[in-house]
Structure formats: structure tokens, C-alpha cells
């Protein structure tokens, strides 16, 4: 616990910060990157690599303009701070003592909210001085239906605006209407870029999805087709084909959503009030497919890996880290554990999490060159057990219908195909379905806006007090598991056995 520090000055470029804290390392001279989905993860990851690359090379043109999707609140926190914010890195040393270091990051030029500043964001995506658009908009930000196709209803307003903007043919976007989806903002920005001269640009997804670059490119193409069928979209399609690339990337750093307590810890560490501070673990990793349409920051000089094929890295991280994370989060919430660190050290949960990781997920993977996946998995369990980040089961349990297909799907499909029942996944599915049933029963927010309506209806149909029937119905939710796996008797039987054990152990939910 730290004491609130209301009298401290606000963090800005001219506020002196405590000598134990470091940074900012740079003051950018312009915007070279537009980032869509400027949240905690971006702050602790890409923004740091980018600041380090600027400091390392002296090329200060790679400043970041961030787009905050959800509300103007984050913008209003960071704008008075000249784009500065703090990352408080917390880990454990070999004796189990907490080690902290605070770093003020200087790579962000400003942050804008599309509800009020779409013209500025479109102009920035269109500017020839911008060379890279990065994204962390989360799985649901890709506006896809359960079958993976673009949800045209969700993107309808942006589709209509894109059609109108292309028909007008004007490069001036100063009167553009607000974008309502991140995908719409991106495609309208790319179209404006074409109209303004068509400079090449790289669009780099940094979201936790397999083949994130290919998925993003698919959504972009579908959005263009919906707005500009046939000849109307010919110019934009050939611009996308010839002058843009959508590389994939694997990103990793455990970065919890900030809490008031984190802001107090940050204030104590830097000696200034920072409304956009965050906490993160020491580990970070970024593997990027080396396929850029134009210039980029020298990320490879500051720890990022540029590789010809990123897919083996993405799969390993998604299935081992994120997959196990989700198992721990749902089981943890049922057992009353607020943090991942508590969940992974509960022996009743840890054995299933390990079974998921080692027995179910690991055999599905082709190790990336030089990687020892068993050692990687062991290291993950140590990272999860770091209590200092306060990473919550509540946060990781969000968006289940969006995350589970990517995290558990392949472990289900691969194992069933080998004639083996993946018992760790079955446990995870049982924990998820009990989480859903108890949340619906108790009126607790599922944190899954894309799936909530369907899941709630399913639980109401079978009855809130029928755990096994609920599990059977929930696991069969369309799009959750690949093919017919959700109704495969072998898998369903294993899920139901775990549901019985879980309900015997208790009926609560955190
Ligand atoms: C987590 C991830 O919230 C979640 O679902 O699994 O955000 C995880 O912490 C990051 O991917 C770690 O890199």
C-alpha cells in the first residue's frame, strides 16, 4: 500500500522527476507511427521499443500518435502530460524480493479520440511522414462475426462513410465524420492516404491472434468490398495491393490494467502525478515478420526480432501463454482467487494448467527456430506467479468468446484428431462454462460484450441451476471450438466430469 500523493506536481516535459526514475529518453520531432488502440499494453510494449530505437539511432521522427478507442478519458489524462507516462516495472529477485523501476516514456507525441478527432487521425494515417500504422485493438476490435467474416452491421456507418469519401474523391479529410470502429478508421485512413498521393505504408497488427497480419488484411479487404463493390473500389484495391503490407507479429508483456493503487505507486516512484501510469512485468518480447512497405524504426537494434516467418512464434505464445492464462483465469475466479499469481500457486488449479500446457498444447506446436518450448512453458509459470504486477483473473477472463477459439481451439482439434481427449482443455472449458453460468445466475458482468447476449440466453434456456446442461450447451456455442468439437462426446464427457468436480468444490464466483 502506498499513501496518496495529491500535492505532487503533474508529470510534464518540464516537471523534474525523482532521480531514481529514468527517462524520458527522447523528444520526438514528428509523427512517424499512428497507433490504433492506445491502451496499457501499447504503452508498456511498442512505445518502449520505439523510444529505445529513437534513442539508439538518434532518428527522432518516429513519434507516435495514439488513437484511444473507448472514451476520451485516457486522452484527457495523457494530453496535459505532453504525451508522457510512466511504466513501473515490477519483478522478483532471486530471493523473492520485489524489485521496482520506474521509467517515463517519451515516444508518444499525443493521443486522440476518434469520437471527437477523427479528422486528425485520418490526416495522420494519410500523411506521407507516417510510415507505420500499428494496432492493439484486441480481438473484438477486428469486428468479425463468429465465422470470421467482417460484421458488416457493426461497421455499417464506416462503410457508408468510406463509400461517400471515395465518391467525393477529396484528399481533404478535415470535415470527416467520426469513425465508429477501429477497422473503419483504419480503412478510411488508408483510402485518404491513397487520395493524398498514395505513399506506401505498413500496417502492423500487434494483437493476440494467430496470423494477425493476414486476418487484418482480410478484414480490410472485406470492408473495401462492402463499401466499394466492383470498379468503384478498383483504385483502392490496387493501392492496397501494391503499396501496403500487413506483416504479422508476436507481442508479449504482462501488463495489467492500471488501478488507482498503481497510480499512487507511480506517483511515489517518480515524484509527480501521472494519470496514465501503468505497471508491467520485466519480461518483454516482440517478434515481427520482416515485410515492410517502407521505412520503420530500428526496432531490431533494441531487442525486437525481425524474422521471415512469425507464425510459429505466434502459435507458441498464444497456445502456451494465453491459453494457460485463460485456464487459470476462469478456474481462479471460481476458486475465489483475485490474481493470476494466486491461481497458479493453487495446487488444485496448477496441475490442470500444467496438463493443458504440457500435454494438450505443446504437442500441437512446431518450435520456432532455436526455441525450447518446454523451457519456455516453465518460464511462463514463473512469470504468472509474479505477485507484484497484481494481474487479475477478472481482466484475463474477459472476452472469452473472442479469446478461446484462438487459445484452445487447436489443442482441441489436434488432440481429438489423434484420438486423444485433451483433459486440460476440458478442465478449462468446464471452468469457463461454470464461470458463465454463475455470472449469469448472480448478475455478474461477463466482460464479454461480443458474446454476452448469446451466452446469457443459453444459460436461461437450460436453467441457471443446471451446471452440466449449461456446460453441454455453452461448449457447443457456434464459433467457440473448431468444427464439431463442441459436440464431440469424448470431449463433452470430459468437460462434464470436470464440471461435477468443480461444483462439488464450491458454487461461488469472484
Ligand atoms: C492475457 C494477455 O488478458 C489476457 O487475456 O492473456 O493480455 C497477456 O497478459 C498478454 O498477452 C501477455 O503478453
TrEMBL record:
Catalysis: reaction(s): D-mannitol 1-phosphate + NAD(+) = beta-D-fructose 6-phosphate + NADH + H(+)
Any one GO molecular-function label of the UniProt entry: mannitol-1-phosphate 5-dehydrogenase activity
InterPro entries: 6-PGluconate_DH-like_C_sf, 6PGD_dom2, Mannitol_DH, Mannitol_DH/Oxidoreductase, Mannitol_DH_C, Mannitol_DH_N, NAD(P)-bd_dom_sf
Protein's UniProt keywords contain Oxidoreductase: yes
UniProt KW keywords: Oxidoreductase
Ranges of compositional bias, category Low complexity: 1-16
UniProt region (Disordered), positions on chain: 1-26
PANTHER family assigned to the protein according to its UniProt record, in alphabetical order: MANNITOL DEHYDROGENASE 2-RELATED (PTHR43362:SF1), MANNITOL DEHYDROGENASE DSF1-RELATED (PTHR43362)
Protein name listed in UniProt: Mannitol dehydrogenase family protein
